[in-house]
Amino acid sequence: MPYDDHGYGTVQTVQVTAVNQTSVRAATVAVAAHTFMSAVTVTDFNISWLGDVAGAALALTGTQDSNRLILGIGKSVAGTGTITQLGTCVLGTAALGSVIDGTCASTNFDAGDDLVLTANAGTALVALQWNATANVKYKERFV
Q1: Cβ(115)–Cβ(37) under 8 Å?
Q2: Which of 6, 38, 77, 134 has a Cα-to-Cα distance from 28 of 20 to 30 A?
Q3: Domains of the chain (ranges plus CATH)?
């Protein structure tokens, strides 16, 4: 019997949301994750900036990465905890409700692999509690 799912091969989106995260970080830190239950290929992502905990816009200054909040997506194979960074999205002075485009390498995930939202911020970043959602596009793979 042939595989007969009309949605197979179409682009789908999974949302991974981080809530009440603290921005002062010296290294890449996992802040939220999603486990894929089937084999997929992640193709693209963006970040919906939901603002700080008080609901204000992001008001960071400077052009150096140590002064800006950088969110990324990564892959953790079968929940090992080791994260391979796939792409990043730089939030400079994002207004509340903004959608910021991220870039990532097209990457295959097997069933059981984790898609991880990461915060990659420098030590010069001001203290800020924030909320954001990663909208990640993917396609199913038949294996």
Answers
A1: no
A2: 38
A3: 14-140 (2.60.120)
At 93-108, the pLDDT tens digits run 667 778 889 989 899 9
Cβ count within 10 A of residue 108:
13
Nearest by Cα to 115 from 74, 66, 56: 74
Residues 6 or more apart whose CB falls under 8 angstroms from that of 104 comprise: 42, 43, 44, 45, 73, 86, 87, 88
| Type of residue at 127 | A
* Structure token pair of residue 9: 């091969």
**CA-to-CA distance for 126 and 131, rounded, in angstroms?**
15
Pairwise CA distance, residues 139 & 42, whole Å: 7
Name the DSSP letter for residue 67.
G
